Amino acid sequence: xxxxxxxxxxxxxxxxxxxxxxxxxxxxxxxxxxxxxxxxxxxxxxxxxxxxxxxxxxxxxxxxxxxxxxxxxxxxxxxxxxxxxxxxxxxxxxxxxxxxxxxxxxxxxxxxxxxxxxxxxxxxxxxxxxxxxxxxxxxxxxxxxxxxxxxxxxxxxxxxxxxxxxxxxxxxxxxxxxxxxxxxxxxxxxxxxxxxxxxxxxxxxxxxxxxxxxxxxxxxxxxxxxxxxxxxxxxxxxxxxxxxxxxxxxxxxxxxxxxxxxxxxxxxxxxxxxxxxxxxxxxxxxxxxxxxxxxxxxxxxxxxxxxxxxxxxxxxxxxxxxxxxxxxxxxxxxxxxxxxxxxxxxxxxxxxxxxxxxxxxxx
Length: 363
Ligand SMILES: [Zn+2]
Hints:
Rossmann fold, 3-stranded antiparallel β-sheet, 2 domains, 363 residues, 11 strands, alpha/beta, binds zinc ion
């Protein structure tokens, strides 16, 4: 935390893009900042140290000032538990990112440890999966399970940067695992070489999973199957896909957000009422039969999905796509729209999980 005095105010900068201005005509706040930056005192000791120059200050006032600064994510504990040396260097930029969201109760290292302990199941190691897997590995997600039934083909190379020329003809999940372990030998990677043919193919993968990511397009029912399996297991999931000129992604937070079956039910009701085709139906009809996905589009889709995954795994911010389709369109530059769908009280898939309090982000 750095600050600068401007007349009776302090301008505090932690993240260069954000500044907080605090009134401090008496200089008490600045004196408190100096003591805090030494990192050696608790609230009552801070009040005792301040009382010499500022005799009116009470311990209660210092405590409430600390709470307010903590709510702004301006403080971190001097007693934070460090990561081992090697991990600290490996995750240097991840830790720097999490510092923006850290507080006295939750350090940047705590965010990183959450990722190191996490298990994410990724369905599909194609265009979306390639980017998602590399991003999750870079973030330090400790355990990955990868499902895909395909072999590497030359036509994959427009967007599937997980593979190289020497992999052509090999089983994708084998090459994906090898690449991920070459990237970071501390990862734990499991592979499943098969198609998804129903919820029963997904359910066994979720027993100790924190999150599922899916980019599987076929068959048409696959999203319903994934939705059903994840809701029954109480595991959130993020879905990403590509239309010829658009990226679409959404997520489902079981018990908190509407689910994909809710979207289908809302869609069917809307279609009956006004013959209009709403989001789920439109997207289902637009499943590409010829894959026109190019690298920049697949990479952006995968990155948006990985960022949503990070929200679920760490809570650094609330999920951005829970119960809503988010679409990024490239035809007019880059525009973004979203289509929110309501939670259906009669949805049988949602009935499998209790209603929970909406996620509030950092916990
Ligand atoms: Zn539902």
